[in-house]
Amino acid sequence: MSCLEAYRQDGWAQDLGIEVIQADSNTIRMSLPFKTKNLQGEGGVVHGGVIGTLLHDAGALLSNQLFDTSTDTPMHTVDFQINYLRATKDNTLTCQANILRQARHYAFVESLAVDEQERVIAQARMVFGVQQSGTQSKNISTHLYQSLVNSPIGEEQHSFLEMLNSNLSQRRPGFSILGAHGGTCQVEVENQPVNKNYSDNLAVGAQIFAADSAGVFSSFTCGEPLTKAATIDLKLSPCTPIKNENLIAIANSLYMHNKTIHHQLVLFGKESKDLAAIGSMTLSI
User: What domains appear along the chain, each with residue ranges and CATH number?
Assistant: First the structure.
């Protein structure tokens, strides 16, 4: 089965409401109709993880079209970086992905999302790689990695935790905040069909959503009296696909300067501790 055919049955994309409106070897165009559950909160703006999914999935489909892959050996995401130019709500978004360069084993892709008024909402640049057999995966800096995935938050939790958790779980099935305190937040994503892609792995879009949520929530626990935080950019480098287990996303707020907060992101399998992705994000406050 082609990746395009399989994508129409993708649990995560279907739940968001993403539709493919054009697909060929040069361009992919997608549509994201307005849905209230895709907002950050009641009366809010479209969640950054939803917009990130739209841009990522358009790029992923295009790279698979370009290399004519099947669902047995789809292209894997090597790197994803998105810039959020403006917030949006009450709008249908349209996304177009274009190839920047095709190398022997990699596709360099750019995606752009616009609203109904043709205003640019977000842009992303991505790298996708051909699945190569016989390669091994391993953690190199084991000590550093273990310190990240085993870092406790502590018993004290932020006062907003219950309210944030209620809003998150209502909008995204299987998502919950495990803890948030002292500039750190942990988000768990359950191993449910609605959070998976057509390969039965946890969708990269779900990981983007979890990372963005953890980063925003961690900002509110930095000790500063914040009332809002908007993601400016988010970067993820996926490592190991997560299958048949829950995912943990940890955001650590590292540095605040000139009305911005910089975060470190690490995502891993809850049981296996396999590294799913590493990254960073910057928020405007």
Answer: 1-131 (3.10.129.10), 157-285 (3.10.129.10)
